[in-house]
């Protein structure tokens, strides 16, 4: 230590504090798990001939990085580059801006909502019957690259949306005991016999309805309040398998299997109004669930996110862009294993305020960042991410990136 | 000649990782958050390996700045840190069951800026001048914060949360 600069505390005091640190250090947990995470990065590529500008003074670092950002941003603008990783932002309030931005974070969800919205069209208004779509049973029975299921499963736990190229590998590990699986969600909740389902085409619901015990081949558009879908199966290649339009309320979807199949499906479930979703087995789409309103999702199993054909990037299982009173609790949400893009859960204030959101007690796996929060000039308030179990090493960047200021606590990495 | 000509990435994390995680843990009060901060820093080092002159210094500075960011937004982002102020709640942070030492509890009651400086001084073994440089603050500010932090820490270690 430097005695000249030391404040006027007695040597005894300083020795005591010194010893307190030494003693506390001896009680620190092992760093073996983190060492493995860092080791997994591998050795970096060789140095370039012009290397060596970093690791100097903070001022030098700042200037070097700022220059690099300008160059990269300029080049990107010129050639129209898009990258899943964000361009680092210079923190004007911090001279050490070079290290003020987490290396593994992204500034927004990998795929822009604006882009999604601009390339999709909602189902046409008015009475609608979607073409009957046969379930893609042939592809669904093919093994995945990283098979997930115990051999006795009768239904693929991670069914593909488009059957082949869009399919992404999922965890090699089974869902931990107590969390939802395909065997405990959908029709299995009340042991509904598939043979007993009444086949119908896709439909637009315009008045209070209980839709129960049906096999729907096509999309469902819910344009009325007080609608319940229960103990049913929905298979669709439409833009959305189930679309809850804006301006409705009291929508319930429970104990239902929803499969979005095909290469152009935006989301298996699109929520523009609040809904309560329970016991659902849901897969397919670039996103499983896209939401611009509050919703409650409980005891459900989400999987099978597809790649976007134009970019090859994966979407997310849940993308909640705005809303109030979001509850995501007690679900199993399986994103692609170590995917270069996408999240199991994205909660953000991208297109409007996000208020009172709770993500808790879920089993989560995969994605570039398994749980990501984001904000874009809208209020982001009272958001909590706690008590979740996240499969260790299932992500490609990091497990939680809290860019919007949620309360994050008590989440655990779960070793297989 | 750059240091990266002679050493491997593995050399750096073998040499720095444990120390940085412990330091970040003292600063942040959460082992989990500390590990993520250090991981982020090593990812950053990995990404910039070919440009880094002194990898050890780079990753250390990256970790400190990541901790600063987290502390700076502490009220919003890390409300659980406030729990450190009460001994019984230390274990509430999932992976902190091994961190319930008097020191961690006492550090949790310090003003974040003072806590950071105290940790850098005593655990990081940095001089006042180095701390001032690392944090881009005047030497006098570093010194006064260290003094007040140490005084408060000493009282906390002696008398617990009653001070």
Descriptive overview:
The complex is a heterodimer of chains A (416) and B (163). The longest helix of chain A has 22 residues, at 58-79. In chain A, the strands form two sheets. Chain A has a 17-stranded parallel sheet that branches. A nine-stranded parallel sheet of chain A has the order 2-4-7-10-13-16-19-22-25, with no helix packed on it. Chain A is of the alpha/beta class. Helix content of chain A is 14%, strand content 29%. Chain B has helices spanning 9-28, 31-47, 55-72, 74-77, 102-108, 112-122, 128-135, 139-159. In chain B, helix 2 (31-47) packs across helix 3 (55-72). Residues 75-98 of chain B have low confidence and may be disordered.
Q: What secondary-structure arrangement, pairings included, does this model have?
A:
The complex is a heterodimer of chains A (416) and B (163).
Chain A: H1 11-26, H2 32-39, H3 58-79, H4 113-119, H5 137-140, E1 198-205, E2 209-212, E3 214-222, E4 227-230, E5 233-236, E6 240-244, E7 251-254, E8 257-260, E9 267-271, E10 275-278, E11 281-283, E12 287-291, E13 295-298, E14 301-303, E15 318-320, E16 323-329, E17 332-334, E18 345-349, E19 354-360, E20 363-365, E21 369-375, E22 380-386, E23 389-391, E24 398-402, E25 407-409, E26 412-414
Parallel strand pairs in A: 1-3, 2-4, 3-5, 3-6, 4-7, 5-8, 6-9, 7-10, 8-11, 9-12, 10-13, 11-14, 12-15, 13-16, 14-17, 15-18, 16-19, 17-20, 18-21, 19-22, 20-23, 21-24, 22-25, 23-26
Chain B: H1 9-28, H2 31-47, H3 55-72, H4 74-77, H5 102-108, H6 112-122, H7 128-135, H8 139-159
Helix pairs in contact in B: 1-2, 1-3, 2-3, 6-8, 7-8
């Amino acid at each position: 230590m430097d005695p000249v600069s030391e404040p006027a505390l007695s040597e005894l005091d300083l020795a005591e504090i010194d010893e307190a640190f030494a003693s506390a250090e001896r009680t620190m947990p092992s760093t073996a798990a983190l060492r493995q995470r860092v080791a997994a990065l591998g050795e970096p590529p060789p140095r370039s001939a012009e290397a060596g500008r970093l690791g100097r003074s903070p001022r030098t670092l700042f200037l070097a990085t700022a220059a690099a950002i300008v160059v990269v941003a300029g080049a990107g603008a010129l050639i129209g580059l898009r990258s899943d990783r964000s361009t680092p932002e210079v923190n004007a309030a911090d001279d050490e801006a070079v290290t003020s931005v987490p290396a593994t974070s992204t500034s927004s969800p990998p795929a822009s909502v604006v882009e999604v919205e601009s390339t999709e069209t909602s189902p046409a208004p008015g009475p609608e019957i979607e073409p009957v779509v046969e379930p893609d049973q042939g592809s669904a029975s093919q093994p995945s690259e990283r098979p997930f299921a115990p051999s006795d499963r009768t239904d693929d736990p991670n069914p593909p949306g488009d059957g082949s190229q869009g399919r992404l590998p999922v965890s090699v590990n089974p869902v931990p005991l107590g969390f939802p699986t395909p065997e405990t969600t959908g029709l299995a909740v009340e042991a509904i016999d598939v043979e007993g389902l009444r086949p119908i085409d896709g439909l637009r619901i315009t008045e209070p309805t209980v839709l129960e015990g049906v096999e729907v081949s096509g999309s469902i558009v819910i344009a009325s309040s007080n609608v319940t879908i229960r103990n049913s199966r929905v298979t669709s290649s439409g833009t959305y398998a189930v679309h809850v339009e804006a301006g409705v309320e009291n929508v319930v979807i429970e104990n239902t299997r929803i499969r979005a199949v095909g290469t152009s499906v935006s989301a298996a479930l699109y929520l523009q109004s609040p809904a309560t979703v329970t016991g659902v087995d849901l897969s397919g789409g670039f996103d499983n669930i896209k939401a611009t309103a509050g919703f409650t999702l409980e005891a459900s199993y989400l999987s099978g996110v597809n790649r976007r054909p134009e970019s090859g990037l994966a979407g997310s299982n849940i993308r909640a862009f705005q809303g109030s009173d979001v509850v995501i609790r007690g679900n199993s949400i399986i994103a692609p294993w170590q995917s270069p893009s996408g999240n199991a859960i994205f909660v953000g204030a991208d297109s409007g305020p996000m208020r009172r959101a709770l993500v808790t007690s879920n089993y989560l796996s995969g994605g570039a960042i398994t749980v990501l929060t984001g904000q874009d000039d809208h209020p982001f308030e009272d958001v909590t991410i706690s008590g979740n179990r996240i499969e260790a090493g299932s992500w490609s960047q990091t497990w939680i990136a809290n860019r919007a200021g949620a309360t994050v606590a008590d989440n655990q990495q779960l070793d297989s | 000649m750059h240091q990266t000509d002679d050493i491997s990435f593995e050399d750096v994390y073998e040499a720095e990782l444990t120390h940085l995680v412990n330091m970040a843990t003292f600063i942040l009060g959460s082992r989990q958050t500390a590990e993520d901060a250090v991981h982020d820093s090593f990812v950053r080092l990995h990404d910039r390996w070919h440009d880094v002159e002194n990898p050890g210094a780079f990753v250390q500075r990256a970790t400190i700045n990541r901790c600063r960011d987290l502390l700076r937004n502490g009220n919003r982002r890390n409300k659980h840190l406030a729990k450190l102020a009460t001994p019984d709640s230390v274990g509430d942070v999932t992976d902190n069951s091994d961190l319930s030492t008097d020191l961690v509890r006492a550090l949790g009651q310090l003003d974040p800026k003072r806590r950071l400086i105290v940790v850098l001084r005593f655990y990081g073994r940095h001089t006042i001048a180095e701390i001032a440089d690392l944090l881009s603050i005047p030497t006098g500010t570093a010194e006064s914060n260290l003094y007040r932090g140490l005084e408060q820490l000493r009282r906390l270690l002696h008398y617990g949360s009653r001070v």
